[in-house]
## 1
Amino acid sequence: METAFNLDQSIRKVKDFPKEGVLFYDITSILTNPDAFSYCIEKMVDIYKNKKIDAVAAAEARGFLFAAPFCEKLGIPLILIRKKGKLPGKVLTKTYALEYGEDSIQIHKDDIPQGGNVLLVDDLIATGGTLKAAKELLEEGGAKVDKAFGIVGLPFLNYSQVLEGMDVVTLINYDSE
Amino acid sequence: METAFNLDQSIRKVKDFPKEGVLFYDITSILTNPDAFSYCIEKMVDIYKNKKIDAVAAAEARGFLFAAPFCEKLGIPLILIRKKGKLPGKVLTKTYALEYGEDSIQIHKDDIPQGGNVLLVDDLIATGGTLKAAKELLEEGGAKVDKAFGIVGLPFLNYSQVLEGMDVVTLINYDSE
């Protein structure tokens, strides 16, 4: 059954969101379909169960949705990658460039496993900018980061260049229209 | 073993966050402790597995962390309660009062099960304001909402008054200092 599952049918495509000219790949249609959601989590477990992963770092907020069941199933600690000002403990902060302007992410310093392997998880990997900033932040904090996972990949936005040297896995990729 | 688990020890208390005079109950220390995280999800499953729940609605962003593993385990559709502007599909919007100012939440209209029972999930229930707004929104959309769950409850902030008539369950409660 698993190989016959069509994940594409469970991903809604919304034109002109969040702005004109952008085709948005919406994963909320996976969440409302328990078969699709289980398929994604089981795939993640299959891919990573035999890799040595000491912690997962998940990007706010949609990354939480896939990282949490995965971590709970495998008993792996879950670290949050949050926007500035959301985490109450001692944090490491990284500011990075966006298409227009910049953004800042934070991670709890004490959550980072010293010398441990951290897997980055997000729902969708596009430019790779946030994951690159997260990788740098985790490495500054003492972890090793050479793996990233996304349900959806948009390779035409060149994440493989930005995340060069990393092992990036996605369950489904879309080309530019 | 389960009854001996001390959840309190896995919840970090941070003084003066996000502002002076507030004691913040931080659940990220549950996420980095796989035993604590599993304990919470298993408790949720035990509490709700025999109730007739057609969907879960989870509050952004920390509510996602507990709702997602719970929904995945029980095969229940997961609806997101998000801040304005995050959901790409047709939405219902509710604006509600905060201590200072107001906030708006949105839910995908087509995700709401007509006549179905929806369980509200968040990490922490304090004033109950967001969950009340979510309940009203889901009911406007055609669902029944009489159950809410939080890992942590702060009853001294009077959520039981705001959520009057609802069956509200929390795993641990804290009194005012």
## 2
Amino acid sequence: MSIKSKIRTIPDYPKEGIMFRDITTLIKDGEGFREVIDLFVERYKDLDIDLVAGIEARGFIIGGAIAGMLGKGFIPIRKTGKLPFESISHEYELEYGTDKLEIHKDAIQKGNRVLLVDDLLATGGTALAGAALVEALGGTVAEMAFIVDLPDVGGRKKLEECGYKYHFLVEFEGD
Amino acid sequence: MSIKSKIRTIPDYPKEGIMFRDITTLIKDGEGFREVIDLFVERYKDLDIDLVAGIEARGFIIGGAIAGMLGKGFIPIRKTGKLPFESISHEYELEYGTDKLEIHKDAIQKGNRVLLVDDLLATGGTALAGAALVEALGGTVAEMAFIVDLPDVGGRKKLEECGYKYHFLVEFEGD
């Protein structure tokens, strides 16, 4: 069974009209999860990467597994008020209102090359906020990695406009 | 440098009198993170385990990496309202008030042996709530794994009283 077929679609979640792509059915499958991680590790094992940063919360699962396999350090990028040490934050726009992501000030050294990981690319707002935090600390986003891309929601285009490299394993068009 | 020495202590966080044991300094160190994961994988690779369950959010990082290395499926145990599919919840007591954890109803098959992972064992309330969810779905907690144990806070004693096996890598006494 393919990676794509192991992802569950939940119609009208979190609200009407949204087809939610649920990766929990993929990652609870030992072979499926391992295949995902192996594909990323194959791509990144020979690349010049210092750290893996994962975006809370599903990015922690995927990013943690990639970092562990690559033998790289892992950096959590978290929702507001979750990090215990001195942090910087970056606000970004949602459909209604704004949200914030935070990173520890000492998470990244100047010049570090960071692989930014999340489960899914939709509008790109979260990924761009994560990248802004990495760069605010003097790091460089080597690439952004996602399991799922929803190209019709516009994130891919936005990342391209901003000059970021990205990689995804499957895409759902028409979302 | 030892695993313990890579863990940062933040005094008076999140409130006065608490010595917060911050694992972000350990896991941002590639060698430190890999050593942690290798120790767990060495312990669990020959054990009869079907799934790894991680408790949100730091348990996702550690549990995700262990599951990836073992080639086992990963199950997220999440805070209220975060899971997209049908879920069951378990309420547990905090120092003041209560909190809830949730798991997807189809996360675990009857008879599955589950390794339950979190970064730190303190009072044991969260770990016991996670175990209750695994068991409510017909699973068995094969063992609970933590990086850090704070034995003076009472969690270890509680897990023993409830008959759970647990394993931790380092402990901080006097907390």
